[in-house]
Design goal:
Elements lengths: L12 H17 L7 H24 L4 H27 L5 H23 L9
């Protein structure tokens, strides 16, 4: 990944993957049963969107390594939570197994990228 080509959090590959996955989850969750509205539906939408929101916050906190890493950690936790909700959605037959696997795999990519950034934050930090 060319750091120079990344001007904004939206340019990050993991942000793009997370955003697309969150939108896919939003569309799929429209078909979840109405009795899940205040539980699974809200939770999976919230956590999937939170991955992106925390990445955006992390990007803006790049002046401070500890704050940057903390927000990346929050994003990582939300991605793992989203994977758990995907598992529930598949087990409850609200989400097709293949679709669930595909979205789960998207979050594995996001998690991998986040862990790499957390373990090596220096190239991402702003020095002014």
């Amino acid at each position: 990944m060319n750091k120079e080509a990344i001007k904004d959090h939206k340019d990050l590959g993991i942000y793009k993957i997370a955003f697309e996955a969150a939108m896919k989850i939003f569309e799929l969750s429209k078909k979840f049963p109405v009795e899940e509205r205040y539980s699974l539906t809200d939770q999976i939408r919230r956590s999937s969107r939170s991955v992106c929101a925390n990445l955006a916050e992390a990007w803006r906190k790049r002046r401070y390594e500890a704050a940057f890493i903390a927000k990346l950690n929050d994003s990582e936790a939300e991605a793992a939570e989203t994977q758990t909700w995907i598992e529930f959605a598949v087990k409850c037959n609200y989400m097709n197994v293949e679709v669930g696997r595909e979205i789960y795999a998207n979050y594995n990519q996001v998690l991998s990228g986040l862990v790499n950034m957390i373990n090596n934050p220096s190239p991402w930090l702003r020095n002014h």
